[in-house]
Give the backbone structure.
Amino acid sequence: SNIGSQKERVVTEEEWLQKWEMGNIGFHKEQGHPLLQKYLDVLLNGRSGLRIFFPLCGKAVEMKWLADMGHSVVGVEVSEQAVKEFFSEHSLPYCEEPVPEISGAKMFQSTSGNISLYCCSIYDLSSSVVGKFDGVWDRGALVAVNPRDRQRYASLMISLVEKNSSYLLVTVSYDPNKHKGPPFYVPESEIKSLFG
């Protein structure tokens, strides 16, 4: 497959913010993702009380679902609107505070303390700020990252997970010559080279 047509494509932070402002969020799913339900036991691996990371989380309903099961959920999202909509749509009270280590970043945390959403660029995060995770639900993050940033993204994700963590990744398969993305086409061979 020729992915040359997508290789140079760049979607700016402003474009993502605009998608949220315009309500152009076809990527948001009102119902929990069936693949998370199907592979939940793989993610949890018989463990409870996990720290689960949602990269480029938007207002994913699965965050509340997993938090309600007793897990601690951390997400990162560039759109403050998306983060606030998540809390309001689930009627969850929250507090908002600056993140001292990241200029301009805010952290929105549910009053119950089990959901923390960072509003900043994912590339500003590090394990010294957010800690490490037992699980990752990547349902649209890797495929949304600009193709030229994939290696940087994968390296960051690897640095954020514990040794025995589970990483669930959803990608999309299509002819990249017919669609410019996002979501971008990420062949399985590239996933293997990124994550080993």
